[in-house]
Amino acid sequence: MVTLSVPPASSGLEDEKARRQARLETLTAAFGDPFLVTRFAKTHSAAALKAQFVSLAAGDRTDTPVSVAGRIMALRNGGMFLDVLDDTDRVQVFHDLKNLSPERKAWLELLDLGDIVGVAGTVRRTPRGELTVDATEGQVLSKALEPPPSTFHGLKDTDTRFRRREQDLVANPRSRQTLRARFTMIATLRRTLESRDFLEVETPMLHTVAGGALARPFVTHHNALDMPLYLRVAPELHLKRLVIGGLAEKVFEINRCFRNEGLSPRHNPEFTSVEIYQAYADFRTMLDLTETLVYEAAMALHGTPRVTFDGDVLDFTPPWPRKSMTELIREHTGFDFAALPDADEARGAAASLGVHVDPSFDWGRTVEAVFAAKVEDRLIQPVHVVDLPKSLSPLAKAWPDRPEVAQRFETYINGWEIANAYSELNDPREQRARFEAQANERRGPDEPPHPVDESFLSALAFGMPPMAGLGIGIDRLAILLTDSTSIREVIAFPTLRPE
RNA sequence: GACUCCGUAGCUCAGUUGGUUAGAGCAUCUGACUUUUAAUCAGAGGGUCGUGGGUUCAAGUCCCACCGGGGUCACCA
Question: What global pTM score does this model have?
Protein backbone atom coordinates (compact mmCIF):
# COMPACT_ATOMS: atom_id res chain seq x y z
CA MET A 1 0.00 0.00 0.00
CA VAL A 2 1.32 3.36 -1.00
CA THR A 3 1.39 6.16 1.52
CA LEU A 4 0.51 9.51 0.07
CA SER A 5 1.51 12.82 1.43
CA VAL A 6 -1.64 14.90 1.26
CA PRO A 7 -1.23 17.73 -1.24
CA PRO A 8 -1.83 21.04 0.53
CA ALA A 9 -5.09 22.81 -0.10
CA SER A 10 -3.45 25.29 -2.37
CA SER A 11 -4.04 28.13 -4.73
CA GLY A 12 -2.20 30.51 -6.94
CA LEU A 13 0.65 29.76 -9.31
CA GLU A 14 3.32 29.44 -6.61
CA ASP A 15 1.13 27.07 -4.66
CA GLU A 16 0.38 25.15 -7.81
CA LYS A 17 4.10 24.68 -8.41
CA ALA A 18 4.59 23.61 -4.79
CA ARG A 19 1.75 21.12 -5.09
CA ARG A 20 3.27 19.60 -8.21
CA GLN A 21 6.64 19.45 -6.48
CA ALA A 22 5.02 17.60 -3.57
CA ARG A 23 3.40 15.12 -5.93
CA LEU A 24 6.75 14.55 -7.59
CA GLU A 25 8.27 13.72 -4.22
CA THR A 26 5.48 11.32 -3.37
CA LEU A 27 5.74 9.77 -6.81
CA THR A 28 9.49 9.40 -6.46
CA ALA A 29 9.16 7.73 -3.05
CA ALA A 30 6.46 5.32 -4.15
CA PHE A 31 7.20 4.62 -7.78
CA GLY A 32 10.71 5.90 -8.43
CA ASP A 33 12.08 9.16 -9.74
CA PRO A 34 10.56 9.83 -13.17
CA PHE A 35 13.61 11.84 -14.16
CA LEU A 36 15.77 8.73 -13.93
CA VAL A 37 13.83 7.09 -16.75
CA THR A 38 15.86 7.11 -19.96
CA ARG A 39 13.63 5.37 -22.47
CA PHE A 40 10.18 4.11 -23.22
CA ALA A 41 9.22 1.48 -25.77
CA LYS A 42 6.45 3.09 -27.81
CA THR A 43 4.66 0.79 -30.25
CA HIS A 44 2.44 3.45 -31.81
CA SER A 45 2.14 7.14 -32.33
CA ALA A 46 -1.34 8.48 -31.71
CA ALA A 47 -1.88 8.92 -35.44
CA ALA A 48 -0.55 5.45 -36.28
CA LEU A 49 -2.83 3.93 -33.68
CA LYS A 50 -5.87 5.70 -35.07
CA ALA A 51 -4.90 4.72 -38.60
CA GLN A 52 -4.40 1.07 -37.71
CA PHE A 53 -7.75 0.76 -35.95
CA VAL A 54 -9.75 3.07 -38.18
CA SER A 55 -12.28 0.34 -38.94
CA LEU A 56 -12.79 -0.77 -35.33
CA ALA A 57 -16.47 -0.26 -34.58
CA ALA A 58 -17.80 1.77 -31.67
CA GLY A 59 -18.13 -0.43 -28.60
CA ASP A 60 -15.69 -3.05 -29.94
CA ARG A 61 -12.54 -4.01 -28.12
CA THR A 62 -9.35 -5.84 -29.12
CA ASP A 63 -6.70 -7.61 -27.13
CA THR A 64 -3.93 -6.01 -29.15
CA PRO A 65 -1.22 -4.81 -26.77
CA VAL A 66 0.03 -1.32 -27.57
CA SER A 67 1.98 1.41 -25.87
CA VAL A 68 1.81 5.15 -26.35
CA ALA A 69 3.55 8.10 -24.77
CA GLY A 70 3.06 11.82 -24.64
CA ARG A 71 1.90 14.79 -22.64
CA ILE A 72 -1.31 14.69 -20.57
CA MET A 73 -3.66 17.28 -22.03
CA ALA A 74 -6.83 16.33 -20.21
CA LEU A 75 -7.73 14.42 -17.05
CA ARG A 76 -11.43 13.58 -16.90
CA ASN A 77 -13.47 11.75 -14.29
CA GLY A 78 -10.72 11.65 -11.72
CA GLY A 79 -8.18 10.19 -14.08
CA MET A 80 -10.50 7.64 -15.64
CA PHE A 81 -9.85 9.29 -18.98
CA LEU A 82 -6.54 10.86 -19.99
CA ASP A 83 -5.85 12.59 -23.29
CA VAL A 84 -2.25 12.03 -24.30
CA LEU A 85 -0.69 14.29 -26.92
CA ASP A 86 2.28 13.27 -29.00
CA ASP A 87 3.76 14.82 -32.13
CA THR A 88 1.09 13.30 -34.34
CA ASP A 89 -2.22 13.57 -32.51
CA ARG A 90 -4.04 13.05 -29.22
CA VAL A 91 -5.21 9.65 -28.04
CA GLN A 92 -7.43 8.78 -25.13
CA VAL A 93 -6.30 6.47 -22.32
CA PHE A 94 -8.79 4.75 -20.00
CA HIS A 95 -8.38 3.48 -16.44
CA ASP A 96 -11.14 1.30 -15.05
CA LEU A 97 -11.37 2.90 -11.64
CA LYS A 98 -13.72 0.24 -10.27
CA ASN A 99 -11.25 -2.55 -10.83
CA LEU A 100 -8.01 -0.69 -10.26
CA SER A 101 -5.57 -1.82 -7.58
CA PRO A 102 -5.09 0.68 -4.74
CA GLU A 103 -1.50 1.13 -5.87
CA ARG A 104 -2.48 2.02 -9.43
CA LYS A 105 -5.19 4.30 -8.13
CA ALA A 106 -2.64 6.09 -5.97
CA TRP A 107 -0.37 6.45 -9.00
CA LEU A 108 -3.20 7.94 -11.02
CA GLU A 109 -3.86 10.54 -8.36
CA LEU A 110 -0.29 11.78 -8.67
CA LEU A 111 -0.73 12.79 -12.31
CA ASP A 112 -1.06 16.42 -13.36
CA LEU A 113 -1.93 18.12 -16.60
CA GLY A 114 1.27 18.52 -18.59
CA ASP A 115 3.05 15.43 -17.27
CA ILE A 116 4.72 13.17 -19.80
CA VAL A 117 3.54 9.60 -19.43
CA GLY A 118 4.05 6.24 -21.11
CA VAL A 119 1.11 3.85 -21.06
CA ALA A 120 0.65 0.24 -22.16
CA GLY A 121 -2.69 -1.45 -22.67
CA THR A 122 -5.16 -2.77 -25.16
CA VAL A 123 -7.13 -0.99 -27.84
CA ARG A 124 -10.88 -0.48 -27.94
CA ARG A 125 -13.33 2.02 -29.28
CA THR A 126 -15.76 3.53 -26.79
CA PRO A 127 -19.50 3.45 -27.44
CA ARG A 128 -19.17 7.15 -28.27
CA GLY A 129 -16.64 6.28 -30.98
CA GLU A 130 -13.37 7.41 -29.39
CA LEU A 131 -10.36 5.17 -29.95
CA THR A 132 -8.99 4.40 -26.50
CA VAL A 133 -6.12 2.56 -24.86
CA ASP A 134 -7.32 0.56 -21.85
CA ALA A 135 -4.31 1.00 -19.62
CA THR A 136 -2.76 -1.97 -17.89
CA GLU A 137 0.52 -0.26 -17.06
CA GLY A 138 1.73 3.29 -16.93
CA GLN A 139 4.64 5.34 -15.78
CA VAL A 140 5.47 8.99 -15.48
CA LEU A 141 8.37 9.78 -17.79
CA SER A 142 8.64 13.43 -16.80
CA LYS A 143 6.82 15.55 -14.26
CA ALA A 144 5.59 19.00 -15.27
CA LEU A 145 6.36 21.33 -12.38
CA GLU A 146 4.55 24.19 -14.11
CA PRO A 147 0.96 23.98 -15.32
CA PRO A 148 0.36 24.09 -19.08
CA PRO A 149 -1.66 26.94 -20.57
CA SER A 150 -5.36 26.38 -21.04
CA THR A 151 -5.79 23.26 -23.09
CA PHE A 152 -9.15 24.50 -24.26
CA HIS A 153 -8.63 28.18 -25.06
CA GLY A 154 -5.05 27.69 -26.12
CA LEU A 155 -2.46 30.39 -25.55
CA LYS A 156 -3.28 33.60 -27.39
CA ASP A 157 -1.07 36.28 -25.90
CA THR A 158 1.49 36.83 -28.66
CA ASP A 159 4.18 37.92 -26.27
CA THR A 160 3.93 34.73 -24.23
CA ARG A 161 3.46 32.61 -27.31
CA PHE A 162 6.83 33.57 -28.75
CA ARG A 163 8.70 33.85 -25.46
CA ARG A 164 7.45 30.46 -24.32
CA ARG A 165 7.27 28.81 -27.70
CA GLU A 166 7.18 25.33 -26.13
CA GLN A 167 3.93 26.27 -24.38
CA ASP A 168 2.55 27.70 -27.59
CA LEU A 169 3.35 24.48 -29.44
CA VAL A 170 1.67 22.35 -26.79
CA ALA A 171 -1.40 24.57 -26.55
CA ASN A 172 -1.93 25.55 -30.20
CA PRO A 173 -2.19 22.90 -32.91
CA ARG A 174 -2.01 25.67 -35.49
CA SER A 175 1.45 26.67 -34.29
CA ARG A 176 2.68 23.11 -34.60
CA GLN A 177 1.20 22.87 -38.06
CA THR A 178 2.69 26.17 -39.23
CA LEU A 179 6.22 25.46 -38.07
CA ARG A 180 6.13 21.92 -39.38
CA ALA A 181 4.99 23.26 -42.74
CA ARG A 182 7.92 25.66 -42.77
CA PHE A 183 10.44 22.91 -42.13
CA THR A 184 8.76 20.60 -44.61
CA MET A 185 8.94 23.39 -47.17
CA ILE A 186 12.68 23.77 -46.60
CA ALA A 187 13.18 20.02 -46.93
CA THR A 188 11.25 20.12 -50.19
CA LEU A 189 13.34 22.96 -51.59
CA ARG A 190 16.45 21.00 -50.68
CA ARG A 191 15.16 17.85 -52.31
CA THR A 192 14.15 19.67 -55.49
CA LEU A 193 17.61 21.22 -55.79
CA GLU A 194 19.43 17.98 -55.01
CA SER A 195 17.38 16.14 -57.62
CA ARG A 196 18.68 18.69 -60.13
CA ASP A 197 22.29 18.03 -59.11
CA PHE A 198 22.85 21.18 -57.08
CA LEU A 199 25.41 20.74 -54.30
CA GLU A 200 24.48 22.12 -50.90
CA VAL A 201 27.37 24.11 -49.45
CA GLU A 202 28.13 26.30 -46.47
CA THR A 203 29.88 29.65 -46.48
CA PRO A 204 30.88 31.92 -43.60
CA MET A 205 28.40 33.70 -41.38
CA LEU A 206 31.18 35.86 -40.00
CA HIS A 207 32.46 38.24 -42.63
CA THR A 208 35.34 40.70 -42.56
CA VAL A 209 33.44 42.68 -45.19
CA ALA A 210 29.64 42.49 -45.18
CA GLY A 211 29.03 42.32 -48.92
CA GLY A 212 26.54 40.92 -51.39
CA ALA A 213 23.73 43.26 -50.37
CA LEU A 214 23.32 46.88 -49.38
CA ALA A 215 22.17 46.36 -45.83
CA ARG A 216 23.24 47.49 -42.41
CA PRO A 217 25.14 44.63 -40.76
CA PHE A 218 25.45 43.49 -37.17
CA VAL A 219 28.96 44.08 -35.92
CA THR A 220 30.79 41.84 -33.48
CA HIS A 221 34.35 41.50 -32.33
CA HIS A 222 36.81 38.64 -32.39
CA ASN A 223 38.97 38.70 -29.28
CA ALA A 224 41.97 36.65 -30.34
CA LEU A 225 42.26 38.42 -33.68
CA ASP A 226 41.22 41.73 -32.08
CA MET A 227 39.20 42.79 -35.06
CA PRO A 228 35.62 43.53 -35.99
CA LEU A 229 33.56 40.89 -37.73
CA TYR A 230 30.20 41.31 -39.41
CA LEU A 231 27.31 38.89 -39.46
CA ARG A 232 26.67 38.26 -43.09
CA VAL A 233 23.93 40.15 -44.91
CA ALA A 234 24.13 37.77 -47.90
CA PRO A 235 26.13 34.68 -48.88
CA GLU A 236 26.38 35.73 -52.52
CA LEU A 237 30.05 36.58 -52.91
CA HIS A 238 31.38 33.44 -51.24
CA LEU A 239 29.02 31.21 -53.18
CA LYS A 240 30.29 32.66 -56.45
CA ARG A 241 33.85 32.04 -55.33
CA LEU A 242 33.05 28.34 -54.84
CA VAL A 243 31.77 28.15 -58.39
CA ILE A 244 34.81 30.09 -59.68
CA GLY A 245 37.00 27.49 -58.02
CA GLY A 246 35.10 24.69 -59.71
CA LEU A 247 33.93 23.05 -56.49
CA ALA A 248 30.69 22.51 -58.34
CA GLU A 249 28.97 24.24 -61.24
CA LYS A 250 25.64 24.17 -59.42
CA VAL A 251 25.58 25.10 -55.75
CA PHE A 252 23.09 26.30 -53.18
CA GLU A 253 23.02 27.33 -49.56
CA ILE A 254 20.00 27.43 -47.26
CA ASN A 255 20.93 29.48 -44.26
CA ARG A 256 20.56 32.57 -42.17
CA CYS A 257 21.29 36.16 -43.08
CA PHE A 258 21.33 39.02 -40.61
CA ARG A 259 20.29 42.60 -41.18
CA ASN A 260 20.40 45.28 -38.54
CA GLU A 261 17.22 47.00 -39.65
CA GLY A 262 13.66 47.53 -38.56
CA LEU A 263 11.28 44.76 -37.57
CA SER A 264 7.88 44.29 -39.12
CA PRO A 265 5.41 41.52 -39.86
CA ARG A 266 7.65 40.73 -42.82
CA HIS A 267 11.11 41.46 -41.40
CA ASN A 268 13.03 39.62 -38.71
CA PRO A 269 16.66 40.60 -37.95
CA GLU A 270 17.74 37.08 -38.82
CA PHE A 271 16.03 35.42 -41.73
CA THR A 272 16.57 32.42 -43.93
CA SER A 273 17.20 32.48 -47.64
CA VAL A 274 18.14 29.97 -50.25
CA GLU A 275 20.74 31.20 -52.70
CA ILE A 276 21.41 29.20 -55.82
CA TYR A 277 24.16 29.56 -58.45
CA GLN A 278 24.51 27.77 -61.73
CA ALA A 279 27.45 28.17 -64.12
CA TYR A 280 26.88 28.48 -67.88
CA ALA A 281 23.31 29.64 -67.32
CA ASP A 282 21.66 33.05 -67.21
CA PHE A 283 18.65 34.60 -65.46
CA ARG A 284 16.25 32.89 -67.83
CA THR A 285 17.17 29.52 -66.34
CA MET A 286 16.27 30.93 -62.94
CA LEU A 287 12.81 31.99 -64.06
CA ASP A 288 11.94 28.35 -64.57
CA LEU A 289 13.76 27.20 -61.45
CA THR A 290 11.91 29.70 -59.27
CA GLU A 291 8.57 28.43 -60.54
CA THR A 292 9.58 24.81 -60.04
CA LEU A 293 10.81 25.35 -56.49
CA VAL A 294 7.70 27.19 -55.35
CA TYR A 295 5.34 24.86 -57.21
CA GLU A 296 6.94 21.78 -55.64
CA ALA A 297 6.80 23.37 -52.19
CA ALA A 298 3.11 24.19 -52.60
CA MET A 299 2.39 20.68 -53.80
CA ALA A 300 4.29 19.16 -50.88
CA LEU A 301 2.32 21.19 -48.33
CA HIS A 302 -1.11 21.32 -49.93
CA GLY A 303 -1.20 18.77 -52.73
CA THR A 304 -2.32 21.54 -55.05
CA PRO A 305 -0.71 24.61 -56.59
CA ARG A 306 -3.72 26.71 -55.61
CA VAL A 307 -3.14 28.00 -52.10
CA THR A 308 -5.38 30.21 -49.99
CA PHE A 309 -3.71 33.24 -48.49
CA ASP A 310 -5.56 35.99 -46.64
CA GLY A 311 -8.73 35.24 -48.53
CA ASP A 312 -7.11 35.17 -51.97
CA VAL A 313 -6.31 32.01 -53.88
CA LEU A 314 -2.73 32.17 -55.09
CA ASP A 315 -2.11 29.98 -58.10
CA PHE A 316 1.46 28.75 -58.41
CA THR A 317 0.90 26.73 -61.57
CA PRO A 318 3.78 27.47 -63.98
CA PRO A 319 4.50 29.36 -66.05
CA TRP A 320 4.07 32.72 -64.36
CA PRO A 321 3.71 35.96 -66.32
CA ARG A 322 6.91 37.83 -67.08
CA LYS A 323 6.61 41.57 -67.37
CA SER A 324 9.15 44.34 -67.41
CA MET A 325 9.15 46.88 -64.62
CA THR A 326 8.40 49.78 -66.96
CA GLU A 327 5.65 47.80 -68.65
CA LEU A 328 3.96 47.18 -65.29
CA ILE A 329 4.26 50.85 -64.39
CA ARG A 330 2.67 51.77 -67.71
CA GLU A 331 -0.19 49.34 -67.06
CA HIS A 332 -0.86 50.79 -63.63
CA THR A 333 -0.19 54.48 -64.22
CA GLY A 334 -0.21 55.13 -67.95
CA PHE A 335 3.31 56.55 -67.78
CA ASP A 336 5.94 54.92 -69.96
CA PHE A 337 9.28 55.38 -68.23
CA ALA A 338 11.01 53.36 -70.93
CA ALA A 339 10.34 56.35 -73.19
CA LEU A 340 11.80 58.76 -70.62
CA PRO A 341 15.38 57.61 -70.30
CA ASP A 342 16.50 60.96 -68.95
CA ALA A 343 16.64 61.10 -65.15
CA ASP A 344 15.16 64.62 -65.01
CA GLU A 345 12.19 63.67 -67.15
CA ALA A 346 11.69 60.49 -65.11
CA ARG A 347 11.68 62.44 -61.84
CA GLY A 348 9.22 64.89 -63.32
CA ALA A 349 6.89 62.08 -64.32
CA ALA A 350 7.19 60.54 -60.86
CA ALA A 351 6.36 63.86 -59.25
CA SER A 352 3.27 64.25 -61.41
CA LEU A 353 2.18 60.82 -60.18
CA GLY A 354 2.52 62.06 -56.63
CA VAL A 355 5.56 59.90 -55.92
CA HIS A 356 8.17 61.61 -53.83
CA VAL A 357 11.64 61.24 -55.36
CA ASP A 358 14.89 62.68 -54.08
CA PRO A 359 16.62 65.04 -56.56
CA SER A 360 19.68 62.80 -56.35
CA PHE A 361 17.75 59.81 -57.72
CA ASP A 362 18.89 58.57 -61.10
CA TRP A 363 16.55 57.03 -63.67
CA GLY A 364 16.70 53.60 -62.07
CA ARG A 365 15.95 54.70 -58.53
CA THR A 366 13.14 56.89 -59.77
CA VAL A 367 11.56 54.01 -61.67
CA GLU A 368 11.90 51.80 -58.61
CA ALA A 369 10.24 54.41 -56.41
CA VAL A 370 7.28 54.65 -58.77
CA PHE A 371 7.08 50.87 -58.98
CA ALA A 372 7.12 50.57 -55.18
CA ALA A 373 4.47 53.24 -54.75
CA LYS A 374 2.10 52.37 -57.57
CA VAL A 375 2.56 48.75 -58.62
CA GLU A 376 4.06 46.46 -55.99
CA ASP A 377 0.98 46.11 -53.78
CA ARG A 378 -1.16 45.06 -56.69
CA LEU A 379 1.00 42.12 -57.74
CA ILE A 380 -0.98 39.47 -55.88
CA GLN A 381 -0.64 36.51 -58.21
CA PRO A 382 2.92 35.33 -58.93
CA VAL A 383 4.65 37.47 -61.52
CA HIS A 384 8.25 37.84 -62.62
CA VAL A 385 9.23 41.48 -62.91
CA VAL A 386 12.03 41.57 -65.48
CA ASP A 387 14.31 44.30 -66.84
CA LEU A 388 15.12 45.93 -63.54
CA PRO A 389 17.24 49.08 -63.66
CA LYS A 390 20.95 48.45 -63.76
CA SER A 391 21.68 51.12 -61.16
CA LEU A 392 19.83 48.98 -58.61
CA SER A 393 21.71 45.86 -59.63
CA PRO A 394 25.43 46.29 -58.98
CA LEU A 395 26.19 42.58 -59.24
CA ALA A 396 24.13 41.90 -62.38
CA LYS A 397 25.02 42.01 -66.05
CA ALA A 398 23.39 44.74 -68.05
CA TRP A 399 22.06 44.16 -71.55
CA PRO A 400 24.70 45.18 -74.12
CA ASP A 401 22.08 47.01 -76.18
CA ARG A 402 20.14 48.44 -73.21
CA PRO A 403 22.73 49.72 -70.76
CA GLU A 404 20.16 51.07 -68.26
CA VAL A 405 18.55 47.67 -67.74
CA ALA A 406 19.95 44.63 -65.97
CA GLN A 407 19.51 40.99 -66.92
CA ARG A 408 17.57 40.50 -63.78
CA PHE A 409 14.13 39.71 -62.39
CA GLU A 410 12.33 39.85 -59.08
CA THR A 411 9.37 37.60 -58.46
CA TYR A 412 6.42 39.17 -56.66
CA ILE A 413 3.64 37.35 -54.86
CA ASN A 414 1.04 39.06 -52.70
CA GLY A 415 2.87 42.33 -53.26
CA TRP A 416 6.06 40.98 -51.72
CA GLU A 417 9.41 40.36 -53.34
CA ILE A 418 9.88 36.63 -53.00
CA ALA A 419 12.74 35.90 -55.39
CA ASN A 420 15.56 37.88 -56.95
CA ALA A 421 17.78 36.58 -59.72
CA TYR A 422 20.17 37.76 -62.37
CA SER A 423 22.87 36.96 -64.84
CA GLU A 424 25.89 37.47 -62.64
CA LEU A 425 28.34 40.15 -63.64
CA ASN A 426 31.66 38.41 -64.25
CA ASP A 427 33.73 41.24 -65.73
CA PRO A 428 36.17 42.20 -62.94
CA ARG A 429 36.80 45.64 -64.44
CA GLU A 430 33.13 46.51 -64.59
CA GLN A 431 32.52 45.07 -61.12
CA ARG A 432 35.32 47.16 -59.62
CA ALA A 433 33.94 50.27 -61.25
CA ARG A 434 30.49 49.59 -59.81
CA PHE A 435 31.80 48.84 -56.32
CA GLU A 436 33.83 52.02 -56.33
CA ALA A 437 30.91 54.09 -57.54
CA GLN A 438 28.87 52.60 -54.71
CA ALA A 439 31.59 53.32 -52.16
CA ASN A 440 31.50 56.97 -53.17
CA GLU A 441 27.73 57.26 -53.12
CA ARG A 442 26.25 59.75 -50.72
CA ARG A 443 24.38 57.86 -48.00
CA GLY A 444 22.48 58.73 -44.87
CA PRO A 445 24.29 60.49 -42.01
CA ASP A 446 24.54 57.31 -39.91
CA GLU A 447 25.41 55.04 -42.76
CA PRO A 448 28.93 53.73 -43.12
CA PRO A 449 30.35 53.78 -46.65
CA HIS A 450 30.09 50.58 -48.66
CA PRO A 451 33.38 48.75 -48.43
CA VAL A 452 34.92 47.24 -51.54
CA ASP A 453 35.38 43.49 -51.23
CA GLU A 454 38.86 43.01 -52.70
CA SER A 455 38.83 39.25 -52.14
CA PHE A 456 35.81 38.98 -54.36
CA LEU A 457 37.29 41.22 -57.03
CA SER A 458 40.43 39.07 -57.04
CA ALA A 459 38.27 35.99 -57.43
CA LEU A 460 36.54 37.58 -60.43
CA ALA A 461 39.93 38.43 -61.91
CA PHE A 462 40.77 34.76 -61.62
CA GLY A 463 37.98 34.05 -64.09
CA MET A 464 34.30 33.46 -63.32
CA PRO A 465 32.23 31.50 -65.80
CA PRO A 466 29.00 33.05 -66.99
CA MET A 467 26.58 32.27 -64.24
CA ALA A 468 23.04 32.72 -63.03
CA GLY A 469 22.13 33.39 -59.41
CA LEU A 470 18.81 33.17 -57.58
CA GLY A 471 17.79 34.03 -54.06
CA ILE A 472 14.46 33.17 -52.46
CA GLY A 473 13.26 34.46 -49.09
CA ILE A 474 12.28 31.35 -47.18
CA ASP A 475 10.38 33.09 -44.41
CA ARG A 476 8.09 35.06 -46.69
CA LEU A 477 7.42 32.02 -48.80
CA ALA A 478 6.57 30.15 -45.61
CA ILE A 479 4.14 32.93 -44.62
CA LEU A 480 2.39 32.59 -47.97
CA LEU A 481 2.24 28.80 -47.95
CA THR A 482 0.91 28.63 -44.38
CA ASP A 483 -1.56 31.54 -44.61
CA SER A 484 0.20 33.20 -41.69
CA THR A 485 -0.22 36.81 -40.62
CA SER A 486 3.36 37.50 -39.58
CA ILE A 487 6.94 36.36 -40.12
CA ARG A 488 7.03 35.60 -36.40
CA GLU A 489 4.58 32.77 -36.92
CA VAL A 490 6.95 30.95 -39.27
CA ILE A 491 10.11 31.47 -37.23
CA ALA A 492 10.41 29.18 -34.22
CA PHE A 493 11.97 31.83 -32.02
CA PRO A 494 11.50 35.29 -33.49
CA THR A 495 13.59 38.16 -32.18
CA LEU A 496 11.99 39.86 -29.15
CA ARG A 497 13.11 42.31 -26.53
CA PRO A 498 14.02 40.58 -23.28
CA GLU A 499 11.22 40.57 -20.77
C1' G B 1 12.90 56.03 -34.70
C1' A B 2 7.44 58.34 -35.26
C1' C B 3 2.23 57.58 -34.69
C1' U B 4 -1.50 54.50 -32.74
C1' C B 5 -3.89 50.53 -29.97
C1' C B 6 -3.26 47.00 -26.06
C1' G B 7 -1.44 45.03 -20.90
C1' U B 8 -7.15 42.73 -15.16
C1' A B 9 -6.26 35.37 -11.53
C1' G B 10 -1.95 30.01 -14.29
C1' C B 11 -5.05 30.41 -19.29
C1' U B 12 -9.29 32.93 -21.99
C1' C B 13 -11.99 37.19 -20.98
C1' A B 14 -15.97 40.84 -18.51
C1' G B 15 -15.52 45.26 -15.57
C1' U B 16 -20.96 51.12 -17.28
C1' U B 17 -20.51 58.57 -16.94
C1' G B 18 -14.40 57.46 -11.73
C1' G B 19 -18.16 55.26 -6.52
C1' U B 20 -19.10 49.33 -1.40
C1' U B 21 -14.83 44.13 -0.33
C1' A B 22 -12.50 43.75 -8.74
C1' G B 23 -15.97 39.30 -11.44
C1' A B 24 -16.88 34.80 -14.87
C1' G B 25 -15.40 30.20 -17.50
C1' C B 26 -11.37 26.79 -17.69
C1' A B 27 -7.35 25.16 -14.51
C1' U B 28 -6.31 24.18 -8.92
C1' C B 29 -8.15 22.16 -3.95
C1' U B 30 -12.35 19.46 -0.97
C1' G B 31 -16.65 16.36 -1.49
C1' A B 32 -20.31 13.72 -4.60
C1' C B 33 -20.94 11.05 -9.12
C1' U B 34 -18.61 7.64 -12.70
C1' U B 35 -17.61 4.78 -19.91
C1' U B 36 -16.42 10.83 -20.24
C1' U B 37 -15.83 14.12 -25.05
C1' A B 38 -14.54 21.57 -22.55
C1' A B 39 -17.93 15.22 -18.17
C1' U B 40 -21.51 16.92 -14.42
C1' C B 41 -23.06 18.79 -9.42
C1' A B 42 -21.92 21.35 -4.58
C1' G B 43 -18.30 24.16 -2.08
C1' A B 44 -13.32 26.61 -1.40
C1' G B 45 -8.78 29.13 -2.40
C1' G B 46 -6.39 32.23 -5.94
C1' G B 47 -5.33 39.58 -7.92
C1' U B 48 0.71 44.88 -6.31
C1' C B 49 -5.54 45.48 -12.29
C1' G B 50 2.42 45.86 -16.52
C1' U B 51 5.73 49.50 -13.27
C1' G B 52 6.25 54.35 -11.02
C1' G B 53 4.28 59.10 -10.29
C1' G B 54 0.01 62.56 -10.44
C1' U B 55 -5.32 64.50 -10.29
C1' U B 56 -9.50 63.37 -6.97
C1' C B 57 -13.22 62.69 -0.98
C1' A B 58 -12.58 58.25 -4.17
C1' A B 59 -8.64 55.45 -9.81
C1' G B 60 -8.72 48.87 -13.00
C1' U B 61 -11.22 53.37 -15.12
C1' C B 62 -8.63 60.15 -15.96
C1' C B 63 -3.33 62.50 -16.81
C1' C B 64 2.25 61.86 -17.29
C1' A B 65 6.62 58.89 -17.67
C1' C B 66 8.70 54.19 -18.21
C1' C B 67 8.56 48.65 -19.47
C1' G B 68 6.58 44.88 -22.82
C1' G B 69 3.58 43.64 -27.03
C1' G B 70 0.32 44.36 -31.71
C1' G B 71 -0.50 47.49 -36.05
C1' U B 72 0.80 51.50 -39.54
C1' C B 73 4.79 54.38 -41.29
C1' A B 74 10.05 55.24 -41.68
C1' C B 75 14.44 52.22 -42.62
C1' C B 76 15.12 48.00 -45.91
C1' A B 77 19.29 45.42 -53.25
Answer: 0.93
